[in-house]
Write the structure tokens for this entry.
Amino acid sequence: MHLAADPLGATHSLLGDTPAGPGGPRIEVPLRTGDGVLAEERLPVPTVVKIDVEGFEEDVVAGMRGVLASPTCRALFIEVHFALLEARKTPDAPARIVAELRGHGFRTRWLDPSHLMGWR
């Protein structure tokens, strides 16, 4: 992970260079899928999920297909970072995310230009 100068960490990134500028110092962080965390920690499926992962929205959704398949999960709120998805050369990711959610029975709606809601 590239650490930004922002003391709150709001602009840390897994990308080396972002639209905001070059990445700063790097640290290694473990990555786990949502489905993996639930299984390893023996946690229940959440009823509501909030995703804000700075350009890795599609990856996170793909790593929680078990959660999405569960009727226990009733709603998702996803902040979609279009500029970061473009930087990752995945500009079609928002459409694929919507299709993934709908494929699991969620209705979807854009709350504003960068916030997607899925519910059932």
User: Anything to note?
Assistant: The CA atoms of residues 8 and 88 lie 24 Å apart. The longest helix spans residues 93-103. The chain has a mean pLDDT of 89. The helical segments are 34-41, 57-62, 65-69, 82-87, 93-103.
